[in-house]
Design goal:
The protein has 255 residues and is of the alpha/beta class. Helices cover 37% and strands 23% of the residues. It is built from nine helices and ten strands. The protein binds adenosine-5'-triphosphate and magnesium ion.
Length: 255
């Protein structure tokens, strides 16, 4: 298993946001994490990526414990994420944003003199090349030199994904990558996710668009009030009584 959560819990004051959650994510899969609003999905992402410390349990990545490590270290080990609200450097160009993503992994502690060495310039050149290739693969080749903050929503979301991929991550964690997109843009984005899977990347996906989730995921885990109520293939999940019940009791049945 690439990622394993063992009895993970998170309590915010009196609220049990995640309760004794165990789940595994298989390498090379697209794994969906779904549930009604407030079910604890984003909290699970924050726990995996070390944004908040867990109250109980442990998380393993490639069989090594990552819970307790700092975010930057978890990222360095190969987990990258996008946020529910797109986070990018609005004044930077698209390419600069991707290079920032790639540089998160740059070796620390290099003296300023090294910055101008031939090997640094060569690395920089290769990073730009890889950045361009990545942008092209996500349909952003034409806007590489545009300022990120002025891009349409669809392109900003694609850029957030590019930044996550630029870290060289093996596991990419995406929080609502389809929110606010048109049907056409959703289809394009899910096609990108399938291509990532073909390249042996693993994707953990929170998404409210059930049609997209069921169409693209290999496995789906369902949370309700922080509790795992079901897990299985999209077909199994769609006919699961507990899942139907959870969604019927929520504001947006089936979303
Ligand atoms: N930092 C925090 N402090 C206190 N409570 C929090 C915090 N973060 C989340 N919560 C609460 O934890 C619960 C789970 O929230 P979370 O954001 O994980 O849900 P979600 O499944 O991502 O929902 P949505 O689909 O609306 O994004 C909610 O009741 C939320 O209000
Ligand atoms: Mg959320």
């Amino acid at each position: 298993m690439l990622l394993e959560l063992r009895g993970v819990s998170q309590r915010f004051g009196g609220l049990q946001a995640v309760a004794d959650l165990s789940m595994t994510v298989a390498p090379g899969s697209i794994h969906g994490l779904i549930g009604p609003n407030g079910a604890g999905k984003s909290t699970v992402f924050n726990l995996i990526t070390g944004v908040i410390p867990l109250t109980a349990g442990e998380i393993l990545f490639k069989r090594e414990r990552i819970s307790g490590l700092r975010s930057a270290e978890i990222c360095r080990r190969g987990i990258a994420r996008t946020f529910q609200a797109t986070a990018l450097f609005r004044e930077y160009t698209v390419l600069q944003n991707v290079l920032v993503g790639a540089h998160r992994l740059a070796a620390p502690g290099l003296g300023p003199a090294l910055l101008w060495s031939a090997s640094y310039r060569e690395r920089e050149r290769r990073a730009r090349e890889r950045g361009h290739a990545l942008l092209k693969s996500l349909g952003l080749g034409a806007v590489a030199s545009q300022v990120a903050g002025q891009l349409p929503n669809r392109d900003q979301k694609a850029l957030a994904l590019a930044m996550a991929l630029a870290t060289g991550a093996e596991l990419v964690i995406l929080d609502e990558p389809l929110a606010g997109l048109t049907d056409q843009e959703k289809a394009e984005t899910t096609a990108v996710l399938r291509r990532l899977r073909e390249q042996s990347l693993t994707v953990l996906l929170v998404e409210h668009d059930m049609k997209a989730v069921m169409g693209v995921c290999d496995t789906v885990t369902v949370l309700d009030h922080g509790v795992r109520i079901a897990e299985g293939t999209p077909r199994e999940i769609q006919t699961n009584a507990a899942v139907i019940e959870a969604y019927l009791g929520a504001e947006e049945p089936g979303a």
